Amino acid sequence: MSKTAAFDPISARTTLFAALLDAKRRHGAAKVVLEDAERQTLTYGRLVLGSLVLGGKLAGLTRPGQAVGVLLPNVNGLAVTVFGLNAYGRVAAMLNFTAGVRNLISAVKTGLVETVVTSRRFIETANLGDVVSALAATEISPGKHVKIVYLEQVRTSIGALDKLSGAARSALAGMLFADAASRADKTAVILYTSGTEGSPKGVALTNTNLVSNARQIYAHAAGMLSPADTVMNPLPMFHSFGLTAATLMPVLNGLKTVLYPSPLHYKQVPKLIGDTKATVLFATDTFLQGYGRAANDGELNSVRFVIAGAERVKDATRAMWSKTGTTILEGYGATECSPVLACNLPSGNRPGSVGRLIPGIEPRLHPVEGITEGGKLVVRGPNVMAGYILAERPGVLVKPEGGWHDTGDIVTIDDGFVTIRGRAKRFAKIAGEMVSLAAVEMLAQDVWPDHQHVVIPLPDPKKGEQLVLVTDNPLAQRGELLAHAQAEGVPELWVPRSIQIVEQIPVLGSGKVDLAATHALARQTRPTP
Fold first, then answer.
1. pLDDT of 511 above 80
2. CA distance to 84, 128, 261, 290, per residue, from 37 (Å)
3. Is 269 helix (H, G, I), strand (E, B) or coil?
4. Structure pTM?
5. C-alpha dihedral, 161 to 167 to 168 to 174, nearest 10°
6. With b meaning 16 or more CB within 10 Å and e meaning fewer, what string describes 360-382?
7. Quick one: which of 2, 92, 31 has its CA closest to 342?
8. Pairing of strands 144-145, 115-118
């Protein structure tokens, strides 16, 4: 049985900014805690000071408790903005700049976001001018449109008095933020679901949710991580994995974090890993394959552990990274849980599972009709969200009943190890039998390990549903897949009726497969029998 450190839920009843102050006290104001792609560094002292100065200016443009949109990539300024908003009691609504105009407009309307903080340089570099124009034209309430605030303008408005005030507040922060516990249950961050199952929902995460999860992760990884480690985070902070696991967890526990603005830069990320000698990497399977293939000799050798989430890790990915001496530890979570729920550890690493639950999580398995192995995972804990904010009820918090969150995932638990069998919504009913789409995808992965595969169910007048395999393998043939299924004793019913070959499987900015876009491909393009 692996050992984890004790997690104290009482100590997590504080704010993000107060937790940052605590980290500064424990690890020293001079410790470098952040570095970005431009090799700019921030110590705890400078991060606290910058947060107070910038936060003070943004507070003058907003109201206490107001949701403020944050449209920025992974740079030091993003961390300063999030902590700055939190210091002055504002809510950071993290906007996914890869989501498209429709979803972004839905996000600001859902969260009643009247002000969006961004950067002119970022908007120009990422060609998001049309997106910003569309946001600025969005009416949040009658006669009230979204206001765009550029960090460059804010910085030029910062004078000597602002800096002096920030320095004074930094020196007196212990007294000024002594009442942090009273704000612990206030919403700190709003994240948004991908919208693959309807309009994007806002997920309201409190200060306690986020601080708890950061400390739960660190307690779970007792002895594995230390302030001597350097974390590489190329994952966007508009996704909970990139925000909490890869940024807040290390920052609030004394680990240096290197931020990179795009996980899709497969050549640049390994180079930065090599330059910074990063020892821990957070990524998804899709990105790990890209880094492993693009890296030059020696660039990845410093990485001791990869923490992988958001999608299943393939055997081929593990084999690729084992050549560098790196151990891949697969974990699991949900945005609604801040997000981490479970993770493998070096002392207890079972490939194919997502590890044991982290401290403080109370699980239940609910039976699902037609599913004979495992059940639907429902969880409760200090990291479970305050509630959803729905597009049809902007600004209104819909709390989880009794504090329980239904993950929608079918899992089994064996000796504490959680194995994901599939999502409840990712089962097809074929001739009366429930078939796991994830299991069929794994079958295809066994046959063609170097390619990406997604199984989509489509209506069938005779059997209820039929399966279509969408793959980027140009040589994929159903006969080969059928032969493997027969050799493994898998019913022919599970083998997709047709195969659709595409140049590339659509991927979300978070690294997950874009199921909605893949489903559209399956409907629009004629499959190959």
1. no
2. 21, 20, 7, 19
3. helix
4. 0.81
5. 150
6. bbebeeeeeeebeebbbbbbbbb
7. 2
8. unpaired
